[in-house]
Amino acid sequence: MKKIILIALLPITIVMAGSFVMTEGNPLTKIEEDNPPAPSPTELSTAGCTDSYSTTINVNSASALTSAVANANVSTRIIVANGTYASNISLNGNSASVCIKSETKNGAKIQSQLLISSDNITVSGFMFNGSAGQLFTTGEYTRITNNTWNDSQANYWLISRGSIGTEIDHNTFKNKTNNTSIVQGMVIELRTYIKNMNGTITKKSNAKIHHNYFKNIYKGSDSNGFESIFAGTYVNESDDRSINRKSYIAESGFVAQKNEGILIAYNYFDNASGEGELISMKSDGITVEYNTINKSYGAITARISNGSVIRNNYILGGNYKDVNGVDVSNRSGGITVMHKNNEVYNNYIENLSDVNSAAILVHGEGETSSTIIVAADNHNIYNNYIDNCPVGIRYGKAVEGETRPAQDGSFKDNYVLNTTIPIRYYAYSQTKIETTYNNEITGNITTGTHSWDMSNQLTDNDVANGTIGAGI
């Protein structure tokens, strides 16, 4: 049997409130020649307006800021005086390279909507709070860095539309208390350009969301619309149901953008529990890597995403807290895979307790009255380390109208340790999963109450005898 070599690396270290330092990688690195190189934090931008600017302008009012942006020349830094800004601010300039910076960190407090329509703008050092503190950008090559959102009562905290070249980094998002009373409210909503009806992308996103801190994002009043990170765009699933939307989703990729090149990396989530999709991937070609998730309800979810990669993430289960600080039962999510050609590898997942889900959930084909689920065909799940979870991997989920499991995939060379059921199937037999639907399950190692059943299809997995719990 092929052996796996894993090395454990340190995750992040909290340095002070609202900031942290990430080591070179976490939690696992596969020691093989074909392992893609890990991105280094040094290759990504550092926090703040660190470039040199030829001109500096000081402003102390919303009107002065608006005028300064509108008339700014290339390479201008605009320093906004400390104070509270409670009226909506709309900035539209000549797309020069401009940095808008608070006089001191969190000293300028935005308690309304800051709308930026210009390109090439950097926003740094602001506090967004109060009744409506929100940042809304529609320009290209916008950078949002070193800001803080703390208990803002705006439904959506950071909205980026268009998102070409957007970079969101080194920000703190904490204490989203209004989730319990609003209908929907995301922390970061990043939507890319909508395709033409023929499936052609106008521009590629290449957006980056990295080195951000999410703390106390409380569970929403509903099960949908409370993601910590929403990345992508899609056709409203309540649109004309007379068209073959399933074909659009599964084949043409109309719903999920093609090869957007979005990177979500080196973020830290602590009690970030808005809904079941912590990170919602709704474009193709997204990479989610080197994130640490601690005691958070919700999963990294390839929801409408083809050809994406989920790797080198560190997921720790445990009781998350409600808005009153009371422990809620451990329903921490792991990784959920839908759609085609997605890779999941080198992730460390431990102490999840939801027996109805799994550390890694692989969806089959299905449709409910409100949504379409596309099977995770051609999935490639390997070299993950799963410890102390009731279920390691689950094929299929109890959704209305599920017609078949994912097919033509693989679950190989994983460690599934101290786990009651290494693999669980929903309404399918082992024979169908492996033979009828051509999923390769091999090279895995397990310990625990149950273990691999090598006499029934699952060959070349270590530790014989016992039952896998095939079917519920």
Give an account of the 3D structure.
- This protein is elongated.
- The chain starts with 5 loop residues before the first strand and ends in a 26-residue tail after the last strand.
- The chain has 472 residues and is mainly beta.
- Helices cover 5% and strands 36% of the residues.
Q: Estimate nothing, just give the exact number of structural domains.
A: 1
Tell me the distance between the termini: 30 Å
CATH top level? Mainly Beta
- Mean pLDDT metric: 78
* Rg over alpha carbons: 23 Å
Fourth CATH level, the homologous superfamily: Single-stranded right-handed beta-helix, Pectin lyase-like
Beta-strand residue percentage: 35-45%
| Biggest sheet: strand arrangement | 5-6-9-12-15-18-21-24-27-30-35-40-43-46
CATH architectural name: 3 Solenoid
Briefly note the structural class of the backbone: mainly beta
Helix content: under 10%
Short description:
The chain has three helices and 47 strands. With 472 residues, it is mainly β.
Write the layout of secondary structure elements.
Elements: E1 6-8, E2 12-16, E3 19-22, E4 28-30, E5 55-59, H1 62-70, E6 76-80, E7 83-85, E8 89-91, E9 98-102, E10 108-110, E11 113-116, E12 121-124, E13 127-128, E14 134-137, E15 143-145, E16 148-150, E17 158-162, E18 167-169, E19 172-176, E20 188-192, E21 208-210, E22 213-217, E23 229-232, H2 245-252, E24 263-265, E25 268-272, E26 277-282, E27 287-289, E28 292-294, E29 298-302, E30 309-311, E31 314-316, E32 320-321, E33 327-328, E34 332-337, E35 343-345, E36 348-350, E37 360-362, E38 366-367, E39 372-373, E40 380-382, E41 385-387, E42 391-395, E43 410-412, E44 415-417, E45 421-425, H3 430-436, E46 440-442, E47 445-446
Parallel strand pairs: 5-6, 6-9, 7-10, 8-11, 9-12, 10-13, 11-14, 12-15, 13-16, 14-17, 15-18, 16-19, 17-20, 18-21, 19-22, 20-23, 21-24, 22-25, 23-26, 24-27, 25-28, 26-29, 27-30, 28-31, 29-34, 30-35, 31-36, 34-37, 35-40, 36-41, 37-42, 40-43, 41-44, 42-45, 43-46, 44-47
Antiparallel strand pairs: 1-4, 2-3, 32-33, 38-39
